From TrEMBL:
SUPFAM superfamilies: Periplasmic binding protein-like II
PROSITE patterns per record: PROKAR_LIPOPROTEIN
UniProt xrefs under InterPro entries: Bact_solute-bd_prot1, SBP
Sequence similarity: Belongs to the bacterial solute-binding protein 1 family.
Protein keywords: Signal, Transport
Source organism of this protein record: Bariatricus massiliensis
Name of this chain's protein: Sugar ABC transporter substrate-binding protein
Signal peptide: 1-20
């Protein structure tokens, strides 16, 4: 990650100088002003799925007097734009998108302002833990995504299985019966291509089966990770997964459940909605969201992959920016964002309300799983996460392609992770 960040900064050097030069007068003027005379206009940089409606923004401006300029940028481009601006001591925007996987790097680079949160907020938003490093909240999650299990009830019943699986052994036995009965050829689906989705899939597998992924020092826990890799390889080698998913995108893998081609998966929370949408699902009414299996019963934890917003260190309008973050992640706004963008609330109180009033239909174990959210990173997301993930998913893909064993895959990824932790 340090190498990647250095590359971005070097490539941006000229741009950074120009930004600094162009902004010099603005900085001088700002320094002359008292903090209480901050401008009442802020910029917010987020991807298109995070944009509030015009009516929502108008209400915020009316209540606070703060004008909001939305800077809608592709998710893949946001991190680089933030780095380029920061190299010149400038803010790409006052408020920025902060993906769960970026927070370690952004914290290490000093790009994020600490945000104060009440104990009540922390209790209601378990995903805040993901954006907390050294006790400091660096961003506030607005869109929840955590891993939950899905199974096709009709497939299970056709195989003579009357109850949802609670352990991974029960999942395996069910897959075997479904395949042997000829109900579907490949009853299990899971991302395993050489991309980020394979990394997170291994992580939630280890987390749900063994309760951990990493040791306290940030290195991989060998027992937990090898156990997860061996189970994944077993499902592949015994023909329970479609060979095509070895090179398919994560979303293509997940859609096998809504296409009726798979009987069980662990996937994003958005599939609660997709599985009830006739335009997205060919087996509406057959899929149910259930708690993640564990080794001796359902798992007592699940892994979150949320999106958040944070305030940049270089913002000249920090107080106004923090006021926006407070509003944007409030209970009322989370309800409105779900209606506008289908963003799953990060506040459990709001999620419960939307389920109870029928706004979210056929939620299954969605709320119960949300209460089990925990971060698998003992010391928070590391700054080198991207490099680590690259080593993990490439070796997972080699394993499912039959090039290496589970132990060999672990040894290779662990070597890289250990190097990164010692830098």
């Amino acid at each position: 990650m340090k190498k990647r960040l250095l590359s971005i900064l070097l490539c941006a050097a000229l741009t950074g100088i120009l930004v600094a030069g162009c902004g010099a007068k603005k900085n001088d003027d700002t320094n002359k002003e008292d903090k209480t005379t901050e401008t009442k206009e802020i910029t917010v940089m987020v991807p298109d799925w995070a944009v509030p409606s015009d009516d929502m923004l108008a209400d915020f401006t009316e209540d606070t007097g703060i004008e909001v300029v939305m800077n809608v940028v592709g998710w893949d481009d946001i991190r680089d734009k933030v780095a380029i601006a920061a190299s010149g001591g400038a803010a790409a925007a006052d408020v920025i998108e902060v993906d769960w996987s970026w927070v370690g790097e952004m914290n290490s680079a000093g790009w994020l302002e600490e945000i104060e949160m009440s104990d009540e907020d922390k209790a209601d938003m378990p995903t805040l833990e993901t954006f907390t490093i050294d006790g400091k909240v660096l961003a506030v999650p607005y869109a929840n995504d955590y891993r939950i299990a899905y199974y096709n009830k009709e497939h299970f019943k056709a195989a003579g299985i009357e109850k949802a699986p609670e352990t991974w052994d029960e999942v395996y036995d069910a897959l075997k019966k479904i395949k042997e009965a000829g109900i579907v050829e490949y009853p299990y689906t899971m991302p395993m291509n050489a991309d980020e989705s394979a990394t997170t899939s291994m992580m939630w597998m280890a987390f749900s089966r063994s309760g951990q992924v990493f040791n306290e020092d940030g290195t991989l826990n060998e027992e937990a990770v090898v156990d997860a890799l061996e189970f994944e390889k077993k499902l592949v080698d015994e023909g329970y997964t479609d060979p095509a998913i070895k090179t398919a995108s994560g979303m293509d893998c997940y859609r096998k459940i809504t296409a009726g081609e798979a009987s069980f998966m662990v996937g994003p929370t958005k599939f609660v909605g997709l599985s009830n949408n006739k335009e997205e699902c060919s087996v509406v009414g057959q899929i149910e969201a259930i708690l993640l299996p564990g080794k001796e019963g359902t798992s007592d934890k699940t892994m979150p992959l949320p999106e958040a917003v944070g305030v940049t260190k270089f913002s000249k309008n920090k107080e106004a920016a923090k006021e926006f973050v407070k509003w944007y992640t409030s209970a009322d706004t989370q309800k409105d964002l779900f209606k506008a963008n289908s963003s799953i609330p990060t506040r459990n109180e709001v999620l419960a309300e939307l389920i109870e009033d029928g706004t979210i239909e056929n939620a299954g174990a969605m709320l119960d799983e949300a209460k089990l959210i925990k971060s698998p990173f003992p010391q928070g997301i590391p700054a080198y996460y991207s490099e680590m993930s690259n080593a993990i998913y490439n070796n997972i893909n080699k394993m499912v392609l039959g090039e290496v064993s589970a132990q060999e895959a672990f040894d290779a990824m662990n070597k890289k992770v250990t190097e990164l932790t010692s830098e």
